[in-house]
Design goal:
This protein has helices at about 45-50, 70-75, 95-105, 110-120, 140-150, 170-185, 195-200, 220-225, 240-245, 270-280, 290-305; strands at about 5-15, 15-25, 30-35, 60-65, 65, 80, 155-160, 185-190, 205-210, 210-215, 230-235, 250-255, 260-265, 285. It is α/β, with parallel strands linked by helices. The strands form 3 sheets. Strands 6-7-8-3-9-10 form a 6-stranded mixed β-sheet, with helices on both faces. A 4-stranded antiparallel β-sheet has the order 2-1-4-5. The protein has a 4-stranded antiparallel β-sheet with strand order 12-13-11-14, with helices on both faces. It is globular and about 75 Å long.
């Protein structure tokens, strides 16, 4: 099987609103693919369609070789799915939750104890196996939810905003588990709006307003989307300077990045002109994924205005 997921012009409309607009992509087996975008970008709707939870309005797709429209039950029986609001049974222990989901996924009884033990080790929650799910921290709950989703060893796992509301440390630990799954050959599709998580994906699908803006490795996106010299400025009251800097003829893009201003210049030699204009020495930097996303979003906005 060349691709775990293939989609062509996959679209979902809700009345007059198009949530996912002609999504075409190919995802290889064993790949960690991040769907990155702001809230409302269409990430969750795309995943729900590919899982067979939501029927497409138009377009086609194959998931693990099964046709999304004609073989949806086969798809559901071969994937794992974890939503942002994944429901654990809080009155059950960690171990009992795992046992329950092993039954839901029809795992043979003689394999259940072994798989439960594997899940406890994978998520490093062996010491919590007798704790009630209600007493776990958010980070522990998310790890347990992931284990419940993958206890049947699915070839493909969909994770919809799995680390929302989780501390940075817990998010890193969660992604360590994801990368272990990928190393074992599991394909992982994860939606996120955290740039540090996206950096750890094999490839990223940038989405905005239902459209796929670009899809590539993090490094390739930074090299191909960002053309010119990126620089960082630290100025007092940066918002007051932003609009003025944007109008400079040698400035391609300008945006806030925390307390700093990121400026995309035509070329390296423009650093001197920017320093003369602002009175502050700009610091040359490598583009971030956030810079990539801002550039893509602005390109799409200009294209829409032109159309």
């Amino acid at each position: 099987m060349e691709y775990a997921i293939e989609s062509c012009e996959l679209t979902r409309r809700f009345g007059n609103f198009t949530a996912v607009d002609r999504l075409t992509l190919n995802i290889r087996p064993g790949e960690v693919c991040g769907f990155l975008g702001a809230n409302g970008a269409g990430k969750s709707t795309a995943i729900r369609m590919l899982c067979g939870i939501l029927q497409p309005s138009s377009g086609t797709a194959a998931v693990l070789g099964y046709d999304l429209l004609r073989e949806v039950e086969k798809i559901k029986s071969n994937i794992g799915y974890m939503s942002q609001k994944f429901s654990l049974y809080e009155d059950l222990s960690v171990k009992d939750n795992l046992s329950f989901y092993a039954g839901i996924y029809s795992l043979p009884r003689h394999l259940r104890s072994k798989r439960i033990a594997e899940m406890l080790r994978l998520a490093d929650i062996c010491e919590q196996e007798d704790s009630l799910a209600a007493n776990l921290s958010v980070g522990w709950k998310q790890r347990l939810a992931l284990c419940c989703a993958i206890i049947s060893r699915p070839a493909l796992v969909f994770l919809d905003e799995p680390t929302s509301g989780v501390s940075p440390t817990s998010r890193r630990q969660f992604f360590n588990i994801i990368q272990n799954l990928s190393n074992q050959g599991t394909t992982v599709i994860v939606t996120t709006h955290f740039m540090d998580e996206a950096e750890r994906c094999d490839r990223i699908a940038f989405m905005s307003e239902g459209r796929l803006l670009a899809m590539d490795t993090p490094d390739n996106l930074k090299k191909t989307i960002i053309e010119g010299q990126m620089a960082e400025l630290e100025l007092p009251h940066p918002m007051e300077h932003l609009k003025k800097i944007e109008t400079l003829p040698y400035v391609r893009e300008c945006s806030m990045y925390g307390a700093f201003i990121h400026v995309l210049l035509n070329q390296e030699s423009d650093l001197t002109a920017l320093q003369n204009f602002t009175g502050v020495q700009p610091r040359p930097i490598l583009p971030t994924l956030e810079d990539v996303f801002i550039t893509l979003a602005k390109k799409r906005e200009k294209g829409a205005m032109g159309a």
